[in-house]
């Protein structure tokens, strides 16, 4: 029995981080007879069985917006790292090698490339804003279209049809939550629709990709590079195949955990706890489950 399971029946409020998928399962929720509030100290509450939480009348809320700048900046870094073939260059330095041609044959400029984000919520929009000065062709697919003024300011085009967007992109970035609709969405068929050599950045959730389909496409060269910080499961076991794919620039789950982000989500968690104990509602965008209802994008 884990420490959490030992204390589950006594809990009124559980604060958790999004680092452990399948953390608050339906089974654990059933045992949590006194639980009222599940608070995610960060963003992304798919480690909680949201339907079970709704059925049990629990509130699930997160510190919305707390680390979106951190993740968007990190995504920009990953796009550049893949585009410039940075990791093997750095590896040469560590290995005592010097082979410019060995790197340059697959290094490109970002300028002029087509970049598409699936999901243009808080993180997706910040990424698009940061990409604007690079002179790329920016596309986004989201169930919601931005206001025309914002779209114009950001300089990105809404693509209603995801498949159509994918056929155009040199780089695809994933910025949607993990939901029943997005789980396993990037399977063999979907990946086959993308341009050969496409670069993929995914800091959203690993389970949006079909693990083996990514490995096979990386090995065949259909995906030219993959970078992200999210894994399924987490922590990734030593023989997780994404550790051994060619042309990957993976890290552990770090993009949203800069010191600045930690300060923001710690303060946000404290503020939400203060509100909760005073009986004050959270800002509406912080709720993932409220009064037995899931937030619209999770339905
Ligand atoms: N790696 C990290 O450290 C880290 C940190 C923060 C967030 N995240 C992940 O990033 C995700 C996005 O964060 P955010 O703050 O931008 O969230 P957000 O809610 O602001 O944006 C999500 C966007 O996705 C869109 N969307 C949802 N489902 C869709 C679908 N099926 N098809 C098309 N569009 C869809 C929504 O309309 C919304 O615009 C989080 O849910 C979380 O999983 C990861």
Automatic annotation (TrEMBL):
D-isomer specific 2-hydroxyacid dehydrogenase NAD-binding domain ranges (all copies): 77-255
Coiled-coil annotated spans: none
Gene Ontology annotations of biological process type: monocarboxylic acid metabolic process
Stored Gene3D superfamilies: NAD(P)-binding Rossmann-like Domain (3.40.50.720)
One GO MF term: formate dehydrogenase (NAD+) activity
Reaction(s) catalysed (UniProt annotation): formate + NAD(+) = CO2 + NADH
PROSITE patterns attached to this UniProt entry: D_2_HYDROXYACID_DH_1 (PS00065), D_2_HYDROXYACID_DH_2 (PS00670)
Keywords from the named record: NAD, Oxidoreductase
Domain D-isomer specific 2-hydroxyacid dehydrogenase catalytic: 3-279
Family: Belongs to the D-isomer specific 2-hydroxyacid dehydrogenase family.
PANTHER family (UniProt xref): FORMATE DEHYDROGENASE 1
Protein name, UniProt field: Formate dehydrogenase
